[in-house]
Amino acid sequence: MGSKPKSLVLSLVVINATLYAVLGYLTFLGVFAPVVGTVRFWPSVFIPAVFAIAFSPLIGGLGAAIGIFISDMLIHGNALLSLSVGVPANFLGFYAVGLTYRRVKSTRIAIALVSAEILLATLLLALSLQYNMVDWNFFYAAVIAIIATLGLTLSFALLLRGEAFRVVFAGSTGLMLGSVIIGVGVWLFSQYLTLPTGQKALPAWAALVWFLWTYLTEIPFIALLAPPLVSVLKRVGFTWGDSN
Hints:
Number of strands: 0
Strand content: under 5%
Structural class: mainly alpha
Shape: globular
Number of helices: 8
Helix content: over 70%
Largest sheet: none
Order of helices and strands: HHHHHHHH
Distance between the termini: 5 Å
Radius of gyration: 17 Å
C-alpha cells in the first residue's frame, strides 16, 4: 500500500466491514443452503470485491473478515465456527480477488480463465445432480445463475471493454477459493462439533453442495455490481491503481 496514510487504510477497512455486515444482514432474507443448511445466501459479496480491486487486496480481505464475523455473531452466534471457517474463507478469498486483478492484466487470459472456472462449476453441478446431492430446483436455479453471470459479464464487456472480464475473473477466482474453504471447512467442523443447525458428522458430499451453493449464488452479484462500481470509482479518480 506504499505511502498511503494508515488512518485512510483503517477507515476504508472499517467502511468495507460495516457495509459488508449491514447490507449482508439486510439482504440474506433468512435463506440457507438447501438440505445441508448452515451457509446462507449472501449477495453482499460484491462490496469487499470492489474494495479489493479499487484499493488493495489487504483492505478487501480484512474488511470482509471483520464484516463476516460481525454478521455471523448476529445470525448464528457461533464464534468458533466463524473464526475457523468464515473469517479465513473471506479474508483469503477477497485478498485473492485483489491480487488476481493486479496479476492478470490480459483480457484474453481473463476471458479464458473465467470461462474455465464457470465451466468447472457447471460440471460439478451436473455431477451433484447425477448423484442426487442436489434436487432439480437447485439445479434450475443454479443454471439461471450461470446464464445470468455470463450474460452480465458479456454485457458489461461491451460497455466497459475488457475491464469487465478482469473484474469478473478476479471476483470468480477469489470466490471459488473462498467457496472451497467454506465447503471443506464447514464439513470438517461438523465431524467434531455441532453446527448451528444441530447437525453433526455430515457426509463428505455436503462439502460439494456448500461449495456450489456459495459460488453459484454469489457470482451473479459480483458480475452485476462489481464492474460498474469499479468503473465509477476509476472515473472519479477514487482508486489506488493496479500496483497497490
